[in-house]
Design a protein that fits this description.
A four-stranded mixed β-sheet has the order 3-4-5-6. The relative contact order is 0.16. It is built from 22 helices and six strands. The radius of gyration is 29 Å and the shape is elongated. About 65% of the residues lie in helices and about 10% in strands. The chain is α/β, with parallel strands linked by helices and about 500 residues long. α19 links the parallel β4 and β5.
Amino acid sequence: MFNLDQYRQEWFGNIRNDALSGLVVALALVPEAIAFSIIAGVDPKVGLYASVVIAIVIAFVGGRPAMISAATAATAVLFGSLVRDHGLQYLLAATILAGVLQLAAGWLNLQSVMRFVSRSVMTGFVNALAILIFMAQLPELIDVPWLTYPMLALGLAIIYLFPRLTRAVPSPLVCIVVLTALAWFSGMDLHTVGQMGDLPRALPELLLPQVPLNLETLMIILPYAVAVAAVGLLESLMTAQIVDDATDTGSDKRQECLGQGIANIASAFFGGMAGCAMIGQSGINVRSGGRGRLSTFLAGAYLLVLMVVLGDLLRIIPMPALVAIMIMVSIGTFDWKSIVNLRDHPRSSSFVMLATVAFVVGTHNLAIGVLVGVLLSGVFFAWKISQIFGVRTELSEDGRVRSYHVSGQLFFASAEQFMAAFDFSERVETVVIDLTHAHIWDISSVASIDKAVLKFRRNGVEVSLRGLNQASATIVDNLGQHQRADADAILSSH
């Protein structure tokens, strides 16, 4: 239920720090938004407008205060072939459809699937993003003027040492101001923000995508929209969890799904591409003191002012200042304890974490890496559960009744072990399969029970199933075949 007092606190409970952190984020957004536009194959203003609109809108309708959403590489890379084959207008249409799909996901409570993402996958996700953030800075560290390196070192020194003097002003903001002033007054030969691409000088205008409204258009944009919606929600929900942990506060994941959808639709109507939450910028915001919705809103508002009003000042910011900030984010994002934990944690957990990192970094696709991690987690979990399954047998004193006491979880991974426990050649009158301490989960386990019962019956042995709990009895009654009159014919057909 909506709580007005809480919503007001999320806006105005940390005004000073939110105002400063928002400015740091806005400055760091500029080169990234331009770079993401290049990845998507569009004009830089598309990424910049998207970052402005998404940040401002998500501040009002998002579910995670202090999390920064804007144009991202995760979504931009998915649009490359669409823009190349069909142009910008189809990108805008796909962005609108992606937003609608995200609204549908929120309405259907699909954010609940996040509970299937294990801690190992989360750690792998975070470490992979830290590596990708660092790798994204390499173009600004290779084949650049030699003064880049001492300026970068100075920037990192300011970021890490200035907080020892005072925390009244975020050290990343001090880094930008000091390095910009030093580069400007000394005339240093350094790469600057202005060299990344042309910055727009006008406000974004409301528009409609100029595409035919027919089935053919839908078929063109649907695959891209589905991919963007899925990747955007996945990265946003995982980033929200990371911010939750960093700030020791909770968030509304369903509202975040809805908010991402609304923000992307708004972005398209103002000429921007789709985006999602940004773990790097969210990290900058949180480490600079941002905690409320105001920081997210001001990040978008400052970015708009910087582009339209202070564009000339923005263009002279040296890239080493922004690279230093992103390296700080990369270092702070990486879970360094996870390296030590490789020795102590179960091998399966470590393998899942490393596989997630490898696939995310190797493909630059967060969805693929996380999907691999989740699948591996499921496989290892199923294997572990199957290992605690067992069957104990006993023979009555008169040798006429053989009892099989089953314990554990009976499902596809333990079905073979279940069948191997029976001696179908033993000459007894009755077999009792005691399932008091077992649970039946799926059609594979039911099929195994059918097969065992029918095999015993074919050998002239009477079979009795005992101890089924209500859930197990229901699935056996609904899916089982052994109680049917033509059960023997079913066995022979298999």
